[in-house]
Amino acid sequence: MELNVAARLRIMPKSVDVNLDEIKEKLTGIVEKYGKIHSSEVNPIAFGLNSLDVAILLNDAKGGMEEIEAEIRNLQGVGEVNVIDVNRL
User: Fold this and answer.
1) Distance CA 15, CA 38 (A)
2) pLDDT at 62 over 80
3) Is residue 52 packed enough to be buried (19+ CB in 10 Å), middle (13-18) or exposed (0-12)?
4) pLDDT digits over 10-55, tens only?
5) Measured between alpha carbons, how far is 27 from 9 in angstroms, rounded to an integer?
6) pLDDT for position 27
7) 65-73 and 20-31 helices cross at what angle (nearest 10)?
8) Computed from CA positions of residues 27, 29, 34, 40, in that sequence, does the dihedral angle turn out positive or negative?
9) End-to-end CA distance of the chain
10) Which of 65, 80, 88, 89 might form a disulfide with 12, Cβ 3.0–4.6 angstroms?
11) What pTM, to 2 d.p., does this model score?
């Protein structure tokens, strides 16, 4: 499967107490159905709150972006999911 789309997501937790490493582990299982995680990093936002920024590689013909977003939103501890950028490679 050719991975020809790169998408960047910002995942915001519901609170500062949410473990972003656990969310990343669950995210890996979700993304594997459609592509793969290229990179991820935790970035400080404000007052101890961090975001999980993730770059995902997908196949344009297979799709899956909407499904990935929906599954991430349903994860416990996730407050918000934003697609920052989507580009063809």
Assistant:
1) 26
2) yes
3) buried
4) 999 999 999 999 999 999 999 999 999 999 999 999 999 999 999 9
5) 11
6) 95
7) 150
8) positive
9) 14
10) 80
11) 0.91
Q: What is the dihedral of CA 21, 30, 77, 22, to 10 degrees?
A: -20
Token pair of 29 as six digits: 């299982």
Residue 33, amino acid: K
Of the candidates 69, 71, 75, 77, the one whose C-alpha atom is nearest the C-alpha of residue 16 is 77
Q: In sequence order, which residues have a C-beta less than 8 Å from that of residue 76 and are 6 or more positions away?
A: none
**Strand residue runs (E) in the chain:** 5-13, 35-46, 49-58, 78-88
Helix ranges (H only) for 1-89 are 20-31, 65-73
